[in-house]
Design a protein that fits this description.
The chain folds into three domains: 55 residues, no CATH class; 93 residues, Rossmann fold (3-Layer(aba) Sandwich), CATH 3.40.50.1820; 58 residues, no CATH class. It is built from eleven helices and three strands. The protein has a three-stranded parallel β-sheet with strand order 1-2-3, with helices on both faces. Helix 5 runs antiparallel to helix 7.
């Protein structure tokens, strides 16, 4: 058996982060790696080998994504969350049947983007009609990977929210009015604002009223 360690020693940078970083003081915001030349580790693939490795394994990405369970930021990092702006949205579903119905609609949306392309946006709501995209592939992937829901973690976590929360919805955003009221009732101390004459994109329909509501909330909570 070799007496050499299996892992290389930590760099000075990594050792410092390991020592100094705390949940309330995150230090490593981003990292950039530059690969060049030959590998410094026996058996390594070097700079060109990195490209080869990515090419060999890129087909696994869709399967990898299926294994990921997204965790809302305030649940994954409550120490980094000072307030919540919950705008024209809902908390998900406790019922598996209801969630499956939502997911069917999301997948149907993805399929329409794949067959109709960007033309699908023309007949949509104002935020869809005014958006700019190079192609519909990303929209279809977003519908499949982001719009679909996995479980009831969000709706179940509402009573545990410990930061100020603004729940904002357009008065004409009928599908989300009840969801907005539900979240306001479940989140301790949450404030609800209903913007008159606004739909699902309240910030576009009534920008002045929207900005006043958000800025007022930030001022009230000392975050402005």
């Amino acid at each position: 058996m070799s007496d050499k360690p299996f892992f290389e020693p930590l760099s000075a940078r990594d050792a410092w982060f390991l020592y100094a970083e705390r949940p309330e003081t995150p230090l490593d915001i981003g990292t950039v790696y530059v690969f060049e030349g030959q590998s410094q580790v026996p058996g390594g693939r070097g700079a060109l080998g990195v490209e080869e490795t990515v090419r060999e394994r890129i087909h696994l990405v869709p399967r990898y994504r299926q294994c990921i369970h997204r965790v809302p930021f305030n649940l994954a990092h409550p120490e980094r969350t000072r307030a919540l702006l919950i705008i024209d949205t809902g908390p998900g579903y406790k019922s598996d049947e209801a969630r499956e119905g939502w997911n069917r609609n999301a997948l149907n949306t993805a399929a329409k983007f794949e067959t109709e392309g960007l033309g699908r946006l023309a007949g949509g709501s104002v935020e869809m009609r005014t958006s700019t995209h190079r192609n519909a592939e990303g929209l279809a992937r977003a519908a499949r990977g982001m719009l679909t829901q996995k479980d009831a973690r969000v709706i179940s976590s509402l009573p545990e929210v410990k930061v100020p929360a603004l729940v904002l919805v357009g008065a004409n955003d009928t599908p989300f009015l009840n969801a907005s009221s539900y979240m306001t009732a479940k989140i301790p101390g949450a404030k609800q604002v209903i913007i008159p004459n606004a739909g699902h994109a309240a910030n576009i329909d009534q920008p002045e009223a929207f900005n006043a509501a958000v800025l007022g909330f930030l001022a009230e909570t000392g975050l402005a």
